[in-house]
TrEMBL record:
Membrane topology summary: Multi-pass membrane protein
Major localization class: membrane
Cell compartment(s), UniProt: Membrane
InterPro entries: SLC26A/SulP_dom (IPR011547), SLC26A/SulP_fam (IPR001902), STAS_dom (IPR002645), STAS_dom_sf (IPR036513)
Recorded superkingdom: Bacteria
UniProt name for this protein: Sulfate permease, SulP family
Transmembrane segments annotated in the record for this chain: 44-66, 72-103, 115-134, 140-159, 217-236, 272-290, 338-357
Record-linked PROSITE patterns: STAS (PS50801)
Domain STAS: 452-561
GO cellular component: membrane
Keywords assigned by UniProt, alphabetized: Membrane, Transmembrane, Transmembrane helix
Taxonomic lineage from the root: Bacteria, Pseudomonadati, Pseudomonadota, Alphaproteobacteria, Hyphomicrobiales
Gene Ontology biological process terms from the UniProt entry: transmembrane transport
Length: 571
């Protein structure tokens, strides 16, 4: 039978060498051979992604409570470093909608300087997580949790755009909490600007229609350009980037170290941790999506290191947190990208756009960017996945619902942590219910007449049981109760582990307790069919001679009971 080397990819405890883990995919692609045809494909993909990323980066920055230029800086510097050093062939880095609520809250609490420091600290944490090889474990976030928090983020993003969608006028900053925000916005409903609403609805309509009729066209850029021109020609009374922020610069700022002090670092530490957690999850989820679209495999730990460097780089130019972006990464794949060069070129194109067309950004209506983010929020909600999870089981429905509600009404990090904990408990419950204790099982490995004779002769005074399934702490109490009820019922006891792939210390201690009970009752106990790892765990927890006798098969144990040595035991 042929064997496939699956243990390394499936077992997080295995140890590939450093070079294998942390070689950027750019190096891998260049080694494979990279010519003009590949460069042409990547240039087209990079230009397409840049066209999508330009308005989106500004919109995310504004929604996050910072000026639009910081979003563009993040997309240029962060996006370049993610593609240069990352572990995914197709990942596009930049500012992400998922961070809007976290960034806005950080700015309100600590100001721009605090946000920049938290971003840099998050970058260091991401690098440490990558070098500690934690990327494999971050991917274990349950699917219902990712669906729930993504939907929750989408609701928060949409709520954050209501002010600009309707052109409402507020004298004070919006509250961060959803319920308070809606209350404040409702109190100024009489300031609604019909022209701003018309611009927002027009932007949404153009994006949706373009997507349906010409899916390969850059609908977001077309919508922003059209409504900006219309707003200027019709002299509509709506806020623009120019009226609120004074436009955006035409060049990148020089790198500057974030202002640091121990007190400030302690103050922004919770924000940095939140950025790190969400950034790791979002980036690796995006890389997994790209893998699913292309059949490739990313290097999760290398990707975390690259995300860390990108966040540090973005902080040096006053940017916001960087992460892998699912929508832009998917656009990159669909546009024909063959490797990370498209991500590098996307950053270069964004820089050129800023150098050439920065003055034009002043004419972009904020209502148009709000309409764009409303479409982004709608697309973030995985409607079919939510429907399937709500119908699949009560456990999955509970996890996705609780995660969603906590993200909306409490806190994003709390939603992820609680959702993960509930998902883990659900997994433990499901695993615990799959374990089976079978009585009088046949030993299919032995079919000789002597074995059948041994089985028949010992049937009257021997209990034979097999534990099937993962034997761990979640099932230990149940299995222990069953085994305790068996001891003393017959003269001998055979417990087979040939269908037990793993056993933990809790379960091993249960077996040890059963073995001691058997010894006190004068019952001779055999353990059969153990794999090396299962046997090692049992022995380490005291399940050894003279409490028990190990044999390779049930038949060998029955032969020992009849003193008919068919073969010598290797144990």
């Amino acid at each position: 039978m042929s064997k496939f080397p699956v243990s390394r990819s499936l077992n997080p405890g295995s140890s590939p060498n450093f070079r294998e883990l942390f070689t950027p995919k750019l190096v891998t692609v260049l080694r494979e051979g990279y010519g003009l045809a590949q460069l042409r494909a990547d240039a087209i993909a990079g230009l397409t992604v840049a066209i999508v990323a330009l308005p989106l980066s500004m919109a995310i920055a504004i929604a996050s409570g910072v000026s639009p230029d910081r979003g563009v800086y993040t997309a240029i510097v962060g996006g370049f470093l993610v593609s240069l050093l990352g572990g995914s062939r197709f990942q596009i880095g930049g500012p992400a909608g998922a961070f809007i609520i976290l960034v806005a809250a950080s700015v309100q609490r600590h100001g721009i300087d605090g946000l920049v420091l938290a971003t840099a600290m998050s970058g260091v944490m991401l690098m440490i997580a990558g070098y500690l090889r934690l990327g494999t474990y971050i991917k274990f976030i349950p699917y219902p949790v990712t669906v729930g928090f993504t939907a929750g983020i989408a609701v928060i993003i949409f709520a954050s755009q209501l002010r600009d969608l309707f052109g409402l006028r507020l004298d004070d900053p919006e509250p961060g909490a959803l319920v308070e925000k809606l209350g404040v916005l409702a109190s100024v409903a009489d300031t609604l600007n019909p022209q701003a609403l018309l611009v927002a609805v027009g932007t949404i309509a153009i994006i949706v229609i373009t997507k349906r009729l010409r899916p390969n066209w850059p609908g977001m850029l077309i919508a922003i350009a059209f409504v900006s021109i219309a707003t200027t020609l019709l002299t509509l009374d709506v806020e623009t980037i120019g009226s609120r922020f004074g436009g955006i610069p035409r060049t990148l700022p020089l790198p500057v170290l974030p202002e640091f002090s121990l007190a400030k670092a302690q103050a922004v530490l919770p924000d940095a941790i939140a950025f790190t957690l969400l950034g790791a999850i979002e980036s690796l989820l995006s890389a997994v999506v790209a893998d699913g679209m292309t059949g490739r495999r990313h290097r999760s730990n290398c990707e975390l290191v690259a995300q860390g460097v990108a966040n540090i780089g973005a902080a040096f130019v006053g940017g916001v947190p960087v992460t892998g972006t699912i929508a832009r990464t998917a656009t990159n794949v669909r546009s024909g990208s063959v490797g990370p060069v498209s991500g590098l070129l996307h950053a270069v194109f964004l820089l050129l756009f800023m150098l050439i067309a920065a003055p034009l950004a002043s004419y972009i209506p904020l209502a148009a960017l709000a309409g764009l983010l409303a479409v982004v929020a709608w697309n973030m909600v995985e409607k079919s996945a939510i429907s399937s999870l709500l119908r699949s089981s009560w456990g999955d429905a509970a996890v996705v619902s609780i995660t969603f509600l906590l993200v909306i009404f409490r806190d994003l990090t709390e939603g992820i942590v609680v959702g993960f904990a509930l998902g883990a408990l659900l997994f433990i419950h499901r695993m615990a219910t799959t374990i089976v204790v079978e009585e009088d099982v046949p030993d299919s490995a032995e079919t000789t007449p002597a074995v059948h004779e041994a089985e028949a002769a010992t049937q009257s005074n021997t209990s034979v049981y097999r534990v099937s399934g993962a034997f761990f702490f979640g099932a230990a109490a149940t299995v222990g109760t069953v085994l305790d009820g068996i001891i003393g019922r017959d003269g001998n006891f055979v417990l087979d582990f040939s269908k037990t792939p793993l056993i933990d210390s809790t379960a091993a201690n249960v077996v040890e307790s059963v073995a001691r009970k058997a010894q006190r009752a004068g019952v001779r106990m055999f353990i059969t069919g153990t794999s090396p790892s299962v046997r090692q765990t049992l022995i380490a927890n005291g399940v050894r001679a003279p409490l028990v006798t190990y044999e390779p098969t049930i038949a060998a144990a029955l032969d020992q009971l009849r003193n008919v040595p068919l073969r010598s035991s290797p144990y």
